[in-house]
Amino acid sequence: MILRLVWENIRFRPMRTLLSVLLIGVPVMLILTLVGVSHGFMEDSHRRMQGVGADIFVWPPGHSFTGGSSAPLPEKSVDFLAKVPHVAQAEGVVQMLAGKLPWDTVTGIDYPIFKQMSGGFNFIEGNESDVFRQPDDLVVDTEFASEQHVHRGGKVKLLNRTWNVAAVVESGKMAHAFAQIAVLQQLDNAVGRVSQVNLKLDNPANVPLVLNELKQTPALDGYDIHSEKEVVDLTSADSIPAISVFVHVIEGIGVFTGLIVVSLSMYMAVLQRTREIGILKSLGATKAFVMKLILWEAGAMGVGGTIAGIALSFVSQAVLKQFVPESLPQAIVPIWWPIVLGIALGSALLGAVYPSMIAVRQDPIEALAYE
Amino acid sequence: MSSPGAPGISPGISPIIHVRDLRKVYKTGKVSVEALRGVNLDVPKGEFLSIVGPSGSGKSTLFHIVGGLTPPTSGEVVVGGMDVGKVSDAKRTELRRTSVSFVFQKFNLLPNLTARDNVRTALYIAGRPMDHIEDELRNVLQLLGIEGRLDHRPAEMSGGEQQRVAIARALATRPAILLADEPTGNLDSTNSLAVLNLLRDLNQRLGQTILMITHNTEAAAFGHRTVHMRDGQIVEAPA
Prior knowledge:
The structure holds two protein chains of two kinds. Chain A is of the alpha+beta class. Helix content of chain A is 55%, strand content 16%. In chain A, the strands form two sheets. In chain A, strands 1, 3, 4, 5, 6, 7, 8, 9, 11 and 12 form a ten-stranded mixed beta sheet that branches. In chain A, strands 2-10 form a two-stranded antiparallel sheet. The relative contact order of chain A is 0.19.
């Protein structure tokens, strides 16, 4: 019966309910979008990392997974690593930061070696014969092409240079944009050097063995050497302090906004329902009953706001996918749904405490006389 | 039980409402208003008592104290065996839940609920087991002739229908005492007559104890007896 009362109260003032639910839903959506974008970045990064086809990655000392890259590794280290037992193939690549974001890089590759390790590109526009015929040729993936609105034969300005889009390929192979390794080495004043070395082993089962071997090699002391699985773990959203702090800040804003919204909404509801509360008290409703009624209603708004926020996060995902698929890939992270439900419910219930106390303290005679 | 100055009960009959030297003072800032100045009243079980008096005579205050909505400032008010002046707010709430029901001039139905749910809410608050509620609901609504309006909200009903639903809600919990505050005050003469006949019928058929406040002496005549109030006191109370 109490749920029916709550439901009828919610239904009776649909506009107030709708506005409250939306106002709770917006911070929920913000939290989910932010978490989704951070996860989206990582999922995109992992997918592309897996697309390299390597089992082990070697970076120079001081490398940061999110800080862009330059090319401090001598190219001869590629030959050195290729001779390590069980290493079937070694590939040196150059990465240059090209955009506003750390993971927005142009990667320099030697296409035949790249193809051998990764299986090559899946061409959407153009074909293999178009790849890197000229120094200014750039191969971009579909996300890059969509966000920059370019097609094969189009021009792109990157790294203070105008590039010719030689082909558009399926996304998921290391980077969004590729150039010839020699061209990037020149641009980076790093001729004869590479940013990272990708190693493919004769058998993935040998990864621990080779990792151990490499880490004990004095010449590689201080190098970042990780298996593909370790890289995925190291670059999870939770492992990046800045993102984690930012998510907590947005969570705080979400709790605060939800609390204020629900408090205001329920305060208004209690004022609007002064007479109704008086009626309930005249029927013998206890303080606990009245408080329960207000808190249930606030809780229902919290749940409604969470559902609205989740729905809105799908909308934000669609919008970001439409306009900035490369810069802001947003994942849907269902594991966060119970968390935002907890945040929305907590703030809604907290926000309803004061209004419910006002309702409980109302004098029934004054409440019944309220117009 | 009855004593001099406590009208309304024959010697040897235990009253369901027993009021002695009841005083109520309302304080607003530094101003004190004495709403009741030593009221004495006994009401036997099964009586239909009308209370008449001008505005400000204290009849609503008496009604609120007897109904447990507010405590007295001093005096003795025993309702169904409970001295409402000596018990906690929670106990007075229990009195409203179990022994006393109200019918108001403005009906005071919950506007967002249907007639059925208004009555169900009262039954739920009274702690009636839900599996018996439908039977009780049907009985009461049949008695009042409003089965056909069960699924209508107050805004979809006439004043007379709303008041009958309010009476149904009040009776559904089978209270020992029904307190009706100007129950015909917002009704036209036809509906007023219907409601008054209904109250008298309930009293005669079910033995329901009823206290009815009214300005209208014709309405008051539907009760067994009428007490008159003025300036916070009972000024005329036929035995």
